[in-house]
């Protein structure tokens, strides 16, 4: 499958949408472009419902007229559409630079299919090449999480807002952005991080993406697992 033009990735992703579907709506620039393209189809008569992964995405979806459900109301979803910060050759990804990693993973895991939209600059040979892995933690457990992450070779830095206040996710939790090297064994690192008391979730999405829509200039390519 291929498509042309600056919005080609969103248009190509729409080919995965069936009338009557319940969709997970991701967070970030690529996901927002998809939500806006989906809204245009809804205004033309496409019947879908969406489960947003963040308050920001919910606001955009309402703006463009996409009916929304809670995850409890939706139950199982058909497809989730989301962006990513790194995509490795086997379609494992790192997400979370936008701060919605835990809700994104929950919605993706509730879906029959996960479709990732990225620009070609997000493609990497090995996960971790961009040097950052977000980890959401409970505020109470942050000191322990910082020590244990450092012990794993991850160098955690508390994410802050522009005014130097602590960044909090929509879940009310801080994020530790771990400075990392390319990851030799992503499943082992994921398991080790999740074993730390106080960790809510990581930006590693392993074995979850079914397709990746890649925009490279004017050209769009779809890779499937």
Sheet/helix structural class = alpha/beta
Overall pLDDT? 95
Helix content: 25-40%
Order of helices and strands: EHEHEHHEEEHEEHEEHEEEE
How far apart lie the N and C ends?
A: 14 Å
Shape: globular
CATH class membership of the largest domain: Alpha Beta
β-strand percent reads 25-35%
Q: Please count the helical segments.
A: 7
The poorly predicted ranges are 1-6
At CATH level 3, the topology of the largest domain is Rossmann fold
Global Rg: 17 Å
Strands, count = 14
Task: Please give a quick description of this structure.
The protein is α/β, with parallel strands linked by helices and 225 residues long. It has seven helices and 14 strands. It is globular, with a radius of gyration of 17 Å.
Would you write up a description of this structure?
With 225 residues, this protein is an alpha/beta fold. The protein has 2 domains: 2-120 and 206-224, Rossmann fold; 132-203, Alpha-Beta Plaits, CATH 3.30.70. 28% of the residues lie in helices and 28% in strands. The chain has 7 helices and 14 strands. The protein has helices at 8-14, 29-43, 55-64, 71-74, 101-109, 142-151, 186-194; strands at 2-4, 22-25, 49-52, 77-82, 86-87, 93-94, 111-119, 132-137, 155-158, 175-179, 199-202, 204-205, 211-216, 219-224. The strands form 3 sheets. A 7-stranded mixed beta sheet has the order 1-14-13-7-4-2-3. A 4-stranded antiparallel beta sheet has the order 9-10-8-11, covered by helices on one side. Helix 2 runs parallel beside helix 3 (55-64). The longest helix has 15 residues, at 29-43. The chain starts with a strand and ends with a strand. 46% of the residues are buried.
